[in-house]
Amino acid sequence: MRDKEGGDWKTFNLSKKSVENTCPLEWKKMTSFVFFQCLSLLIPCAVGQAGVKVIQRPAVLILKPGQQADINCTQSTSNTYMYWYQQKSNGPLQFLFSTATSDDATEKGEGVPARFTVSRKSMEKTDLQISSVEAEDTAVYYCAEGQAGVEVTQSPAVLILKPGQSAGINCTQSTSYTNMYWYQQKSNGPLRFLFYTANSDQATQKGDEVPDRFTVSRKSVPKTDLQISGVEAEDTAVYYCAASPQ
To answer: Which CATH number applies to 10-16+150-244: 2.40.50.100, 2.40.50.140, 3.90.1150.10, 2.60.40.10?
Structure first.
């Protein structure tokens, strides 16, 4: 939701981005030539298999520009697809790579520098390599796993509202996965869990400190709706819907 010039109108930006069982590595600049990298865990937030763990290594990397970075990712199952994403400070999530069981089935994102490469030596493992790291590589790096053939669609793509009006965002999955999720990402902020639903409104979990004006409904297995009553300026964000099987 963003201000329009000359008025108090707001715009909700909605996205259909797909981020699966993930585990981020955060790089923080310590000095002008040293980077610190730490490992943390992010709750699954897109199409993926419930109960699957994705682990990244190492927990800490200290590098000078020009050195090489190697990040290893292992999934606890053997799903076909594994992914790498990058999120720079104050920036959106950027797709880097997808791999499908072998190095021969690799897709690279637009604008990814040549110093970034990926390998997939087994079903369970993928490695991200950055040769000759640069300061601009400072970011959170996400590894993910998933299956093909499932689409999650949100509508409308854009909402223009005045403060105090209500927002309704609809989400439909192309299959009948039990679990559906809602996440919010404000400008310059991390991904935030809002809601989890399992088949019905009676099986709903709400994230910490989510305002009461945010509610969710699950009237059928393939569909979930997010409602915001009395929208406020602070609700400006990208809203993500996701699905996963039991």
So the answer is: 2.60.40.10
